[in-house]
Amino acid sequence: MPERFVPLASLPLASAPGRLAEFGFDGAWMADDLDQLALQASQRALNDAQLAPDQIDVLLYAAALPQAHQRRSAAPTGSVLDSFCYTASWLQEELGLNRATVSGIAQQGCAGMFSALRMARALLAAEPGLQRILCVGVDGLPPGAGREILYNVISDAACAVVVAREGTRARWLGFHQISSGYYWDVPAKQAEIIAAYFPTGKRVIHGLLQQVGLRPDEIDLVIPTGVNASSWPILVRLCGIAEDRLYQPLRRFGHTIAADSFLYLEEAARMKRLAPGLRVLLFAFGFGASWSALLLEIQPEEAA
């Protein structure tokens, strides 16, 4: 997370601050340099996994907004050539990932980081020579932009996750995604998106449970995102999951587009809430539109 916090009363919002406070928001965290935020998150992930840069085989960079995929040239020409300066390549150079190949993940909205993890796992399954993949997600709103999207307050943030063949702290159990191009025109389809959020969220979670052969009551913990806090108890009840399985974050920072689920997963680990054997469900919705659900099983420390 960035260091600068701006309270609700000082943010450009479409709704009354009091109404958004009722939804669990108290302000937004705003970054002055998103690229540095991505660099810091990546370095923390490598340190946490005790990995050297040359141990990473692939870098997958996810961002929802187009400008997050571009770096400004040190010598801009004013031509189309300036558009080919990619943030993912800059990040590779800054981190010293000299062995890694690089790809970007886009057009998934807030589900982009989930897609990066899915593609990382698919690469490991398809190419036996690959061992470790670094997935990085970063997004922030432009200076002066409104900080409310569909009754959610947006903070800037970055996250990074290592997906590895061995030695992981959580084992991948399953993933399910539903995408519908009908919602591609977000400004024109706002009402329809709001109406579809819960029923399609229920469908994607039930689809995942069917895929892995589990009942809703066999989910031990649900990691929320930073969207409207009142929406999460509704979603888990609709899915037949007990409300007490919903993780209650200590720190609320609003919705950060890419990073919510993984910041809260990290917090849950620090709070010793992730016991071995726990089945942990993560869910995200991204404009475009895609609903994604991921199921993990926490591994014993000696296996990591």
Can you give a write-up of this model?
This protein has 304 residues and is α/β, with parallel strands linked by helices. The chain folds into two domains: 4-164, Peroxisomal Thiolase, Chain A, domain 1 (3-Layer(aba) Sandwich); 170-303, Peroxisomal Thiolase, Chain A, domain 1 (3-Layer(aba) Sandwich). The chain has seven helices and twelve strands. Helix 2 (34-48) crosses helix 3 and helix 5 packs across helix 6. The longest helix is centred in the middle third of the chain and has 23 residues, at 190-212.
What CATH calls the topology of the largest domain is Peroxisomal Thiolase, Chain A, domain 1
Bin the helical content. 25-40%
User: In the residues, how many domains can be counted?
Assistant: 2
CATH architecture of the largest domain: 3-Layer(aba) Sandwich
By DSSP, the count of extended strands is 12
- CATH top level of the largest domain? Alpha Beta
Q: Between the first and last Cα atoms, what is the distance in angstroms? A: 26 Å
Tally of helical runs: 7
